[in-house]
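Moderator note: this is an archived Q&A kept for reference. The question asked for a predicted structure of one protein chain; the sequence and the answer are reproduced below.
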Amino acid sequence: MKQLSTEEFEALIKDKEVKLLDVREKYEFAKGHIKGALLVPATDFWENFNQLKIKKTDKIALYCRSGGRSDFIASELEAIGYTKVYNLEMGLLDWLDNKREIVNG
């Protein structure tokens, strides 16, 4: 898993092939999320993730509020063979501190 800064993460997710996953809770997602993100809460991650049919060679970009939950999930994904896993190191808090956009809903 690769830890990415806000700038690196922003560049990565411009690739439309990247699977962008927000692992926060539904109420957090509703308050604001990165455009194009899919909600896959860490609390029931595997149930939701398995429905997405993501291949082990797909690029997966993960984030949460501060980077902890997404870091844990990224490590779990790598442990079962996913090879292109990226984490927004300081989470959505850093994304916002760096004046990046989010969408509501």
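Archived answer notes: DSSP finds five helices and five strands in the chain.
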